[in-house]
Structures are given as structure tokens and as C-alpha cells.
Design a protein that fits this description.
249 residues; alpha+beta; 3-stranded antiparallel sheet; 10 strands
């Protein structure tokens, strides 16, 4: 925000009282911010962390870049950090020398996308249930996994939860507002229709995977394997019909 408001550079001064763990984390965050700035053509030295015991502290301060001719931002500060970062970057981007669509960030950055391997994904939607920021969504009408990159914080819960190991995190920052906020389809699959009533109840790949894994199991010998291809209602009806037929015999 300070850079967006017109500052030529921002220097964070680490005194001897600052714990080393805090200094390391500040360094990580400055690295991410520097990559976002560099992607727009700004020198990453606009954000610097200095140690108060450095003998060359004054030389470091004197060597900081001085950028003139930028109009100061007029947005109001917000409590939400991501919103503040977004508004500051958008303002800097509007006056930047370079205006790419996106820039790659070091893994661990709190911005980015996820990539889904369609050959592995069964659209079980376990990732959707674990996403804490609604970056992932399921479709109520058809088997689709949707993604909003602006919401993603790269926490990794989706990839850790995925039973098929089909999700990969990709740290990056998308400067383009529309692309960042767009709702994208990451994976979609043909629905599987119940063999009894024709109702769609799962994806074809999911049923094929389950059938393949269970076909040698003793509990699914003979006609029992066919129940996996039925919706929950028809499965119960068929089981009761078979039980009644056995009782009559």
C-alpha cells in the first residue's frame, strides 16, 4: 500500500529484539512481494529488510530505487489483507512498465491455482468439502469441479485430501482481474446413469474404478457387483426384492 500511495521504497528494520523466526517469515513474504513487483517491471529492492547491526545500513538506504512520476493511489485501507494487496497491485499494475497476465511465484506463496489431473480425478468432491475459502465448487446440475483463483490461498488442504492424488498446487499471481475472478471448470465427466431407473448418480469413471476394485471381493460375487451400478434407491429395492425371493424359496 505504501508503494501504491507513492513511496519510492519501504525498508523494514529488524532490531536485535526481533526473533529470528519472525525475521525468516518476513523474508519469505518479502520474496513473494518482490516477485509480484518484478513481474510488473518494478525493482524488487523497493521492499527491503535490513538488520540494525549492519555496518552498511546507511549505504543500503542510500542505494534504494527512487521512482518518480507515479500517481498516488486513492483507495481506502481495508481489514482484509488480500483485498489490500489486490488493490495495491492493481494500482501499481496500471502504471507499470510491464503488464503481463501473470507471474510465477515461489512455492508456498498465498496466491495461485490448482491443477487437476483428469485421468485421476473421479469428481468425488472431497476437495470441495475441505476448501476453507470456497475456491473450489461443485456443480449441482452435472459432474463438474469449478475453481475461482482469486479465492485460493494455496493452503494445500485439497491436495492433501484428494484420495486419487490428482491435485497439484501452482503458486502464481494473476494480474488480470477478470481471469483471477473467473469461475473455471477444472474437471468434468460424463454422468453415470442408474442401470435400473436411469437417474444420474455418479460419474462414469468413479463407477468404473469402484467396480474394477471390488470385482474380486467376496461380497460382490455374481450379481452383487451390479448393485454398484445402481442409485441408492434402486440398490435398496433390489436387495429387498432378492431377500423376499430367497425367503419364498
Amino acid at each position: 500500500s505504501a508503494l501504491a500511495y507513492g513511496a519510492s521504497a519501504v525498508v523494514l528494520l529488524a532490531t536485535p529484539q526481533v526473533p529470528s523466526s519472525v525475521t525468516r517469515e518476513i523474508g519469505r513474504q518479502l520474496k513473494f512481494a518482490g516477485e509480484i513487483l518484478s513481474g510488473m517491471g518494478y525493482p524488487d529492492a523497493m521492499l527491503t529488510l535490513c538488520n540494525s547491526s549492519d555496518k552498511d545500513l546507511m549505504d543500503t538506504l542510500a542505494a534504494l530505487p527512487k521512482l518518480d512520476g507515479r500517481a498516488p493511489a486513492r483507495f481506502m485501507e481495508q481489514n482484509d489483507k488480500r483485498t489490500v494487496v489486490r488493490m495495491a497491485v492493481e494500482h501499481l499494475f496500471s502504471q507499470a512498465e510491464l503488464q503481463p497476465t501473470m507471474v510465477a511465484l515461489t512455492p508456498g506463496a498465498p496466491f495461485g491455482e490448482i491443477q487437476v489431473d483428469p485421468a485421476r480425478c473421479t469428481l468425488c468432491m472431497s476437495c470441495v468439502s475441505q476448501c476453507p475459502v470456497s475456491a473450489l465448487e461443485s456443480d449441482t446440475e452435472s459432474p463438474q469441479l469449478k475453481f475461482i483463483e482469486a479465492n485460493c490461498v494455496q493452503c494445500g488442504l485439497c491436495s492433501n485430501t484428494c484420495p486419487e492424488i490428482a491435485i497439484t498446487l501452482v503458486a502464481r499471481y494473476v494480474y488480470d482481474l477478470r481471469q483471477r475472478n473467473a469461475r473455471r471448470i477444472l474437471c468434468e465427466e460424463e454422468p453415470f446413469l442408474c442401470t435400473q431407473c436411469g437417474k444420474p448418480f455418479a460419474t462414469r469413471q468413479m463407477i468404473e474404478n469402484i467396480t474394477s476394485k471390488m470385482q474380486d471381493h467376496p461380497m460382490f460375487e455374481g450379481e452383487a457387483i451390479d448393485r454398484l451400478k445402481m442409485c441408492e434407491d434402486c440398490r435398496v429395492k433390489v436387495m429387498f426384492a432378492e431377500e423376499s425371493a430367497n425367503n419364498e424359496r
